[in-house]
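Students often ask why inverse folding is considered easier than folding. One informal answer: many sequences map to the same fold, so there is more than one right answer. In these notes we will look at a single instance of the problem. The structure comes first.
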């Protein structure tokens, strides 16, 4: 079916009271899932109209039904995969309609929304996430979906990923999110010590979920996260879980973290100030590894030499290391590092300038006084700075 502007207006009118307050009170379900001609704005308008009724109207027909409002309808399947359903020109529209019905659904326990690139425009993803988060989060009446135990949705990033991760972690019945066993990691009662999430095709949203779980976990000491694609955004989330947040909470149990194949970052040893030298030269490290190390260096008081030469940390990695040796708002800075080797790391002007700024007095005259050797390559020029200690 195709629903144009006039058809959409007619549906909204049928769901809403007229000027005399009269409306169709018997309607409890529409089936506009997969209809053509809808857009994200129309889907939201229709969903809002359906929510205003004393008995909310489902918009996907019986697709997700457990029971009808008369409690005589047969129980619907409890397994639903988005890719197997009728696909409209805008998958985002169908996701929003589906999220609306999820709020009141009581049987669905497995939901696969595929990948955000499977037909949805990038600009629509945040709207879809907001709709799904609303279905998973208690509304003003305390109503939300409590039946879902497994959710698959890959490729979400940015602010939308932040919203999704928070809703996933806080949901009481979700046990799996994109192959992350939430119930095994969540909370201080977890007994899991080794967590292998290698080769799962994880991205930013999975890294955000994991970081939020790790903050309250006290058992995991080994995490293998290699062969994923979390990027700098995901790495910053993991790094944040390893350092105290505003409430002073952080993961203190993790001992090793592997992001690049075969290279276990010594998280525990750095936190316990057990190392004076760390040689990771030529280990094929990326910006993610440097971001993790940068986060730990801020509070490290023992490491004198860090060799990250002949890797690919780029500007993102250089910026993270620069932040570790630059006084933050509270004046916290790494004072132990005296030698930092970053040659042949694909560092451009942005990264080089960030490192240089760390060695330059700020407006208060504060700068890093401990680092005396910085070796890097910028614009194909190999540079070694031998800095005098003031």
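Output (designed amino acids):
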């Amino acid at each position: 079916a195709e629903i144009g502007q006039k058809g959409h207006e007619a549906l909204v009118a049928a769901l809403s009271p007229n000027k005399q307050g009269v409306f169709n009170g018997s309607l409890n379900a529409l089936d506009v899932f997969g209809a053509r001609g809808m857009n994200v704005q129309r889907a939201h308008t229709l969903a809002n109209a359906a929510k205003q009724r004393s008995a909310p109207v489902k918009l996907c027909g019986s697709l997700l039904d457990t029971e009808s409002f008369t409690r005589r309808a047969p129980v619907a399947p409890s397994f639903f995969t988005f890719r197997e359903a009728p696909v409209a020109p805008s998958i985002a529209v169908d996701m929003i309609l589906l999220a609306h019905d999820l709020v009141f659904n009581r049987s669905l326990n497995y939901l696969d929304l595929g990948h955000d690139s499977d037909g949805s425009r990038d600009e629509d993803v945040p709207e879809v996430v907001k709709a799904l988060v609303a279905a998973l989060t208690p509304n003003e009446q305390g109503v939300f979906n409590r039946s879902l135990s497994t959710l698959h949705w890959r490729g979400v990033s940015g602010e939308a990923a932040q919203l999704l991760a928070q809703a996933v972690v806080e949901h009481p019945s979700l046990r799996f999110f994109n192959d992350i066993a939430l119930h095994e990691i969540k909370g201080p009662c977890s007994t899991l010590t080794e967590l292998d999430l290698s080769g799962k095709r994880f991205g930013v949203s999975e890294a955000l979920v994991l970081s939020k779980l790790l903050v309250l976990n006290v058992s995991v000491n080994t995490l293998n996260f290699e062969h994923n694609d979390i990027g700098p955004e995901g790495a910053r989330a993991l790094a944040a879980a390893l350092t105290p947040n505003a409430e002073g909470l952080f993961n203190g149990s993790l001992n090793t973290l592997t992001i690049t194949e075969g290279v276990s970052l010594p998280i525990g040893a750095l936190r316990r100030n057990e190392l004076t030298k760390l040689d990771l030269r030529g280990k094929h490290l990326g910006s993610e590894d440097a971001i993790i190390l940068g986060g730990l260096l801020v509070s490290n008081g023992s490491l004198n030499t860090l060799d990250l030469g002949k890797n690919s940390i780029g500007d993102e990695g250089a910026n993270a290391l620069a932040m570790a040796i630059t006084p933050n708002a509270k004046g916290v800075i790494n004072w132990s590092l005296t030698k930092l080797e970053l040659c042949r790391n694909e560092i451009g002007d942005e990264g080089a300038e960030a490192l240089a700024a760390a060695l330059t007095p700020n407006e208060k005259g504060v700068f890093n006084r401990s680092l005396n050797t910085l070796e890097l390559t910028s614009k194909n020029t190999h540079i070694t700075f031998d800095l005098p200690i003031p």
